[in-house]
Write a structure and sequence with these properties.
about 475 residues; 5-stranded parallel beta sheet; 16 helices; 16 strands
Length: about 475
């Protein structure tokens, strides 16, 4: 049999023009056509020992679904994906496949890896466009009830897995919309809210009972859930506690955490002003401090809200930026100005308490620190001021403290994350499991989903074990 000829590069995904997209909130990436999807699928070698599956936190049978795409059985392909992943349209858009399944793709050893994420997005969108979303038949009920606290990626994964194993599942979400970071943190131009709602609606069709505006820790506690008929509880409340630098001026008007800034724009729909009159400072000169995906989202949002200048201020170099490469490129194409090797030391304000500038130091890189990245070292006497009227701090966020604070026997680390077995999500409190950012600290959507999958397995084992040892 002749050796298969592989096209060296991935098929590009069409994008909105940078100048046009910087002024609207429509999705930037436009997706593959059927023809392009088939061509890309044919780059897959269909390895007998596929390494890509081991790189997927939710264990999708990647060669099997790609083979179906190559055969133009697009509905069969999406159903194969959904055997392991109930949120394919989301994962196909926001998961860092380049650091996971695509990183270990065999094709990628000599060429660019197969565009697994783009193909996953394609089949999910194809199914939705046809209106042929197939809901599998529900299995016989086990008689057990599980409460899921938080409708983010981890919680939704747990709910999807357990409902398909015969459990009664209720999801309690504090906000008025399900999705967690998918709706409050990721902007419309990267992940349209209608797509998140579509995936949530699929879970409802499977039989998951989703209750919004229900704050566990206030409306009801975890102990009360366990005492009121739930046999197990999964805590997936995420990392919504904003971090600041602790520098002078952070209490000035016009200083936001990225969490607040993006929540106002995304969940509270400030981006659709004046239809939604959500208060947000529409700065003309905006500084975003940080260089992760959240920083890129904040900077690109500021442009779309009408800023004339948006600066991304980062204390290391471009090589150390933790954001996905495509997000860095998109931000730069759209006009975000990178101020690299720059560290803020003070935010300056006017007589009325509004931001008017951010004083910064130039940095140089020294030896690597514990993260493996070179440590930034201040250059003495290099202070200068960037004139801005808005500052967004995007330097990370911590775990939500509400559930741990109201749940005795639930131990936490010094960082506020819940102490748990990393492979099962089993906590120090009987019947309570956890996953996602409240367990791992701030991470990616797909890693949160992976912890949710492990927790769902552990909950199933726990509830089916009549001894219920802990």
């Amino acid at each position: 049999m002749p050796k298969k000829m592989i096209i060296p590069k991935k098929h590009e995904m069409p994008l909105q023009d940078p100048q046009a997209r910087a002024k609207n909130f429509n999705e930037v990436a436009l997706g593959y056509s059927e023809e392009t999807a088939v061509l890309e699928a044919n780059r897959c070698l269909l390895c007998k020992k596929p390494t890509c599956i081991s790189g997927c936190p939710v264990e999708i049978d990647i060669p099997a679904f790609i083979k179906l795409v190559a055969e133009k059985d697009f509905l069969g392909a999406v159903r194969k994906v959904k055997e392991k992943n109930v949120l394919p349209a989301i994962c196909g858009r926001v998961c860092p496949q380049e650091d996971q399944c695509e990183l270990v793709c065999v094709v990628g050893k000599k060429n660019e890896p197969v565009a697994i994420g783009r193909l996953e997005r394609f089949v999910a969108d194809y199914e939705a466009a046809l209106g042929k979303v197939e809901v599998p038949e529900r299995p016989a009920k086990t008689g057990f009830k599980v409460a899921v606290v938080g409708a983010g990626p981890a919680g939704l994964t747990v709910a999807g897995d357990l409902i398909q194993q015969g459990y009664e599942v209720t999801v309690f979400e504090a906000l008025h919309k399900s999705g967690g970071v998918l709706v409050y943190g990721i902007p419309e131009f990267r992940l349209p809210k209608a797509i998140v709602q579509r995936e949530v609606d699929y879970l409802s069709k499977l039989g998951v009972d989703i209750r919004v505006g229900y704050v566990i820790g206030k409306t009801e506690t975890v102990d009360e859930l366990l005492n009121n008929g739930y046999d197990a509880v999964f805590v997936g409340t995420g990392a919504g506690l904003p971090y600041f630098m602790g520098i002078p001026g952070e209490n000035l008007n016009g200083v936001y955490s990225a969490n607040e800034y993006l929540t106002r724009s995304n969940l509270m729909k400030a981006y659709r002003f004046p239809e939604y009159d959500t208060p947000i400072r529409l700065g003309k000169r905006v500084a975003v401090v940080g260089a992760g995906n959240v920083a890129m989202d904040s900077a690109r949002t500021a442009l779309r809200l009408g800023a004339d200048k948006v600066y991304l201020v980062y204390r290391r170099s471009r090589a150390e930026m933790p954001a996905r490469r495509e997000e860095v490129v998109n931000a730069e194409e759209e006009g975000v100005k990178f101020r690299l090797l720059t560290n803020p030391v003070r935010i300056l304000g006017d007589e009325e308490g509004w931001v008017e500038g951010i004083e910064s130091l130039n940095m140089e890189l020294g030896d690597p620190d514990d993260s493996g990245r070179r440590r930034p070292v201040p250059i003495k006497g290099s202070e200068y001021v960037i004139e801005v009227d808005t500052v967004v701090m995007a330097i990370g966020q911590g775990p939500n403290p509400l559930v741990p604070a109201t749940t005795p026997e639930l131990e936490t680390t010094r960082h506020g994350t819940i102490v748990a077995d990393q492979e099962t999500g089993k906590t120090t409190k009987k019947g309570v499991f956890t996953g996602g950012d409240i367990m791992t600290g701030a991470a990616t959507v797909i890693l949160a989903m992976g912890t949710g999958r492990k927790a769902a397995r552990a909950i199933d084992t726990y509830l089916r074990d009549t001894a219920r040892t802990w």
